[in-house]
Amino acid sequence: MAAKGSQTRRPRRSFGRLAQLPSGRWRARYTGPDGDLHNAPRTFEAKIDAEGWLATERRLIDLDTWTPPDERQARAQALTVTVANYCETVIDRRTRKQPDPLRPGSAAVYRSLVKTRITPYVGHIGLGAVTPATVAAWVDSMATDFPDTKSRNSQAYRLFSSVCADAVEDELLPVSPCRSPKAGRKPKPARKPLLTTDEYTALVAALPERYRLMAELMAGCALRLGEVTELRKKDVRVVRAGDAVAATVTVARAVSWTTGETAHIGPPKSEAGRRTVTVPPHVAALLVDHLETLPSRDALLFTNVTGAQIRPTSFRKVFERAATAAGRPDVSPHMLRHFGAVQAALVGATLRELMDRLGHSTPTTALIYQHTAAGRDAEIADRMSKLAEGKDDD
């Protein structure tokens, strides 16, 4: 018999803790091998059920197969979500993200990558079932099936890697299965020779008249195609001093096009892309005359033959014909921007000045233009020599 005044004590639990809540239900928790306190994913109606959950967790620890309950629950949930469905969820979420939503053009590219590079290989697999080995096999399959589109393959890997990073943030995956940074590395494109001044002059001359000033402005101000085709009369500022005229263009918007040739007008690619660029005087004079032909401040500087906004696919066709006529069928409209950037570097633009002119927030690309300009030193010296020889002949 117990001594008078003594109380019967309940035996202390050897593992975990149970607590009955005001609702009458039972909560179970325990300290795991990681030193953290882990709760059961739900409460239990009966105490015996809560004890059963603790017993199961203890057995996992004894068998050395334990992982945190939250991770197991997330993995189970991830197994019910396919890779293709989660990719679409992420893309859709990014298009609605504020204050920096994914651009329609970028969303279209991502969906195309999912459709052609991800879904045919791993789209049907549960997200939680994707392992590093799964990813490695997918990368190898892409390389085999699409050997000539290495850039697009690496773009698909970078997209899927970012999707998996979102899954980790959403606690659907404990860690990302994308472990091969090399697979997402952008392949170095074959370097095309820069346009020479003579080639540039011939190319512009070969363009239809309505596109020549646009090409001169792209080169003179190092503009992107989506920037120059959205410039309007109100974006040009003209300053006159006697017979001299100066002009600047402000890049405040850009146009991008998605499948179906739908135009999307929005801010430039980055905050640095919002910029005001001084127009070279020889182009400014032509631009000022052109402004006189425009009806209103909101009028586009350049339009197609029907007066509508110039579509990139249409301009590329026109440009390709002119480039071929100039003896450079290998160049694209973007080469005009490259040409203008190198010309700016050749006349002494500093790294900061190049970044501002190009609308770049980092110096990487501007450095390339500086190095390219330095590499043309021999060409410049040769031209100087020929110029001197020409004068000697006079």
Task: List the topology elements.
Blueprint: E1 17-20, E2 26-31, E3 37-39, H1 47-62, H2 69-79, H3 83-95, H4 104-122, H5 132-145, H6 150-169, H7 197-206, H8 209-221, H9 225-228, E4 236-241, E5 244-251, E6 254-258, E7 262-266, E8 275-278, H10 281-291, H11 312-325, H12 334-346, H13 351-358, H14 364-375, H15 377-393
Antiparallel strand pairs: 1-2, 2-3, 4-5, 5-8, 6-7
**Would you list the SSEs in sequence order as H and E?**
EEEHHHHHHHHHEEEEEHHHHHH
Q: Strand sequence of the main sheet, in spatial order?
A: 1-2-3
- Average pLDDT, rounded to a whole number, is 87
Coarse morphology = elongated
**CATH topology-level name of the largest domain:** hpI Integrase, Chain A
Structural class estimated from helices and strands = mainly alpha
Total of domains:
3
Low-confidence stretches: 1-7
What oligomeric state do the depicted chains represent? single chain
The N- and C-terminal alpha carbons lie at a distance of: 132 Å
Domain Tyr recombinase: 190-382
InterPro entries: DNA_brk_join_enz, Integrase-like_cat_sf, Integrase_catalytic, Integrase_recombinase_N, Phage_L5_Integrase_N, Tyrosine_recombinase_XerCD
Protein name: Site-specific integrase
GO biological process, one term: DNA recombination
